[in-house]
TrEMBL record:
It catalyses: ATP + protein L-histidine = ADP + protein N-phospho-L-histidine. This is histidine kinase. Gene3D superfamilies: 6.10.340.10, Histidine kinase-like ATPase, C-terminal domain, PAS domain. It comes from Pontibacter virosus. GO terms for molecular function: ATP binding; protein histidine kinase activity. The chain crosses the membrane at residues 7-26, 32-54. The lineage of its organism: Bacteria, Pseudomonadati, Bacteroidota, Cytophagia, Cytophagales.
Length: 438
């Protein structure tokens, strides 16, 4: 039974008893009866005032509790002139104002945090209580080439390519650096935070590719320039000496002239090869900035097909092209891209060797070019080293081809990858759209 009900029952009982006593006084003394009636009326008035004095604060408290329960921190009460009630109103108003300010501050901080996460150049993967992906920010979407909505509720083990393997190795509080496809380098951090009293985790991804490539380029450009300077100075002096020595060829005895000429020619050829060797390295350093203009990709690929046809027939390699019927125009430096694609096709042919297949597929939306071969594939231990400047698995290789490809594609802003899948197919994929500035 509520307190209000108890009070009303008590007041009705007392006043009913007083009314009964007044009835008995009416039979004995009318003056006492009138006095008793006045007393009853005064008691009723006093009871009503007490009822209002007692239960108005309760109504106020109830209304305040309902506002707090509904999370409505904008409702305040006006003082009524009663000291005790006004003190209660003042305390409630101060409390509700503090709650309102704290909620506004919390909402503003939450909004600011969401904006920072959304605009952050670092990728952020937020995990739920079961270590499943709850959300990822736009930077992480760019890194993974996937939307956050498609990954929501997924485990890290379901991420594509080598992401799953690498992110599973990230330990809390220990930065972990790894390389994807031999070109993209990332540093991952795993940390925890408290949400509703329970621990949750998030992973932050920072791409180091641009900084590492810049440092690598500065290092090998300096070395190549120094080597080229020294070699050119030496070969120039040697060529001058060899030209002078050739002048004395008729003066050599006929019995030794052939050996002399042969030795001289070997020296000249080796000197020329050394100059050509250094020129190949210098070409990487002297690569100019791309002069971009719209180029029809289908026409470029068809031209490369005709150029490679004799070598394809000689090796008995089948080249298949899957091109969209609608002409696809992409801003690029046609000469540089032609050189890069030519090197990619040559690498695919060398991987196949003979009696194999190479597939070229051009995707229109989003613009993407994929060159696939069924050659030997890329060994696991070699994959992290791909696109490392001047790295080569060939005995006589200089590692210039992939380095040149890397520099051309990076200067165009095209993202690319080189991977071998479980079916033994190796694919070089190029996204023919300049990456947006982060």
């Amino acid at each position: 039974m509520k307190l209000r009900t108890k009070f009303i029952i008590y007041a009705v009982f007392v006043h009913g008893l007083l009314a009964a006593m007044a009835y008995f006084l009416l039979q004995e003394n009318k003056l006492l009866f009138i006095g008793m009636e006045v007393l009853v009326l005064l008691s009723v008035v006093l009871t009503v005032n007490l009822y209002n004095a007692f239960f108005k604060p309760l109504n106020l408290i109830r209304a305040g509790i309902e506002s707090i329960r509904d999370k409505d921190f904008s409702t305040k009460f006006v003082q009524v002139g009663q000291p005790e009630l006004d003190e209660l109103v003042d305390v409630y108003n101060r409390m509700i104002e503090q709650l309102r300010q704290e909620r506004v501050a919390q909402a503003e901080k939450h909004f600011l945090l969401e904006k920072i996460i959304h605009a952050s150049p670092a990728g952020i993967i937020l995990l739920d209580f079961d270590n499943r992906i709850e959300s990822i920010n736009p930077a992480a979407e760019r890194f993974l080439y996937l939307s956050g909505q498609s990954l929501q509720g997924s485990e890290l083990a379901t991420l594509p390519n080598t992401w799953a393997r690498e992110l599973k190795q990230v330990q809390t509080g220990q930065p972990y650096t790894f390389r994807l496809n031999g070109i993209r380098t990332f540093r991952a951090h795993r940390a925890h935070f408290i949400d509703r009293g329970f621990q949750r985790a998030f992973i932050m991804l920072e791409e180091l590719t641009e900084a590492i490539i810049k440092n690598e380029r500065q290092a090998y450009e300096k070395v190549i320039r120094m080597m080229s300077h020294e070699v050119n100075n030496s070969t120039g002096a040697i060529n001058s000496i060899l030209d002078s020595v050739q002048y004395y060829t008729p003066q050599i005895d006929e019995a030794h002239r052939e050996d002399f000429t042969y030795a001289l020619q070997v020296a000249i050829d080796r000197n020329a090869n050394l100059s050509k060797f250094m020129a190949n390295f210098a070409d990487v350093v002297r690569l100019p900035a791309p002069s971009k203009k719209p180029v029809q990709v289908q026409a470029l690929l068809k031209r490369l097909e005709r150029l490679m046809q004799p070598q394809l027939e000689q090796r008995q390699i089948n080249l298949s092209m899957k091109l969209p019927t609608t002409p696809l125009f992409v801003p690029m430096d046609e000469q540089q891209l032609e050189q890069a694609l030519l090197n990619i096709l040559k690498n695919a042919m060398e991987a196949v060797k003979s009696d194999g297949d190479v597939w070229v597929e051009l995707q229109e939306q989003p613009p993407c070019l994929t060159i696939t071969d069924n050659g030997e594939g890329i060994p696991e231990h070699v994959r992290p080293m791909l696109f490392t400047p001047f790295f080569s698995t060939k005995e006589t290789g200089q590692g210039i081809g992939l380095t040149m490809i890397r520099e051309i594609l990076l200067s165009h802003g095209f993202q690319f990858s080189l991977e071998s899948n479980q079916d033994g197919l190796t694919s070089f994929r190029i996204r023919l759209a300049a990456e947006q500035t982060k």
